[in-house]
Description:
The chain is α/β, with parallel strands linked by helices. Helices cover 47% and strands 14% of the residues. It has helices spanning 14-21, 36-41, 46-49, 68-79, 95-100, 105-108, 111-128, 149-161, 185-193, 207-216, 226-230, 234-240, 253-267, 273-284, 291-300, 304-317; strands spanning 2-5, 28-30, 34-35, 59-64, 85-90, 136-141, 166-169, 198-201, 221-224, 250-252, 323-325. Residues 6-11, 32-33, 62, 89, 91-92, 140, 170, 201-204, 224-227 line the site of flavin mononucleotide (FMN).
Amino acid sequence: MKLALAPMATLSHEALRRLIYTFAEPDEYYSEMIHAPSFVNGTKFEKFYVRTGPSPEKMVWQLTGPDRDNLAKAAAMLSGLGGTGIDINMGCCAPDIVRTGAGISWMLKPMDETARLIEAVRKSIDSVSPGKSGPRFSVKLRLGEGKNYGQLLLFCKMLVSGGVEQITLHPRTKKESYSRPANYEFVARLARDLPVPVYGNGDIDSAEKARQYMEKYPCAGLMLGRAAVQKPWIFRQIRETGTENREAQKVNHLENSLYFLEVFREVQPPEFYLSRARRFFFYYCDNFQFGHYIRMKIQRARSLEEIQLLLEAYFGESPKDLFSVI
Ligand SMILES: Cc1cc2nc3c(=O)[nH]c(=O)nc-3n(C[C@H](O)[C@H](O)[C@H](O)COP(=O)(O)O)c2cc1C
């Protein structure tokens, strides 16, 4: 079974990957979505989106965009960076993205329009690395507007016949929020009915759940998002489940936080510091008994230095929270 870090805007960057690396890596790191038109036109932030550490060969570059030309051009540019693959985002439901015709809109447009996109991206990847040597071409999607398996299968068969080599399904509809459980039976059915590897994504937040889902809904891989931010050690826990290598490890949360902030300063532009550090700690603080309290303080902090001081003070006051045994 493959394990992948999910693409998460503002979160799936090199600082998170390097923190995960200190425990155990997944097989693949999806990047946060890269906006194809901005990438092609080159903005001052693009270089931060394409950082490859700590394991360049494991990178899967995820693209989002409303138009075929820019997605195809960006795919060629990213193919030159190496890594495991190029992924097209067909699952994002954020209103700003959907409004422009990107994300899940590609599942809802006339199918021949999406088929032409797939053909263009395939050609573009092949033009950089002909044959089987190039990056894998994949798509991440949701169920679509409703829970219609026949329609979903037809859509995925179109993707595969256009040259898509792997599919990740986050099995929720466009409207379903995280509060409702993901419909994993769709993952297992797609995995059975398609000739390419299918990964399941959504709600995996423990090694136990990963094991149960793999047994109940067999598929080629699992992709984890929010849980990997809260517990950057989760890939290690999943890998070690059921093996004799399982050794309890003590995790020091202050050390992790300081390491994250140190790497974060190095790999992100100052313009992103506050919003992105707050986003990381929004999830990471779930490890603490008084997580809501420190999370709220961090959300109001004005600088990375202030975040660091808040964390040091918090662990001074709540020493029991300093360690978790995993
Ligand atoms: C903050 C945040 C940003 C996200 N950004 C992206 C993105 O850039 N591309 C994408 O395909 N999905 C994105 N997602 C969705 C995740 O990849 C994933 O499908 C979702 O969080 C469910 O998985 P989980 O339950 O393991 O978190 C995002 C999710 C979150 C919470």
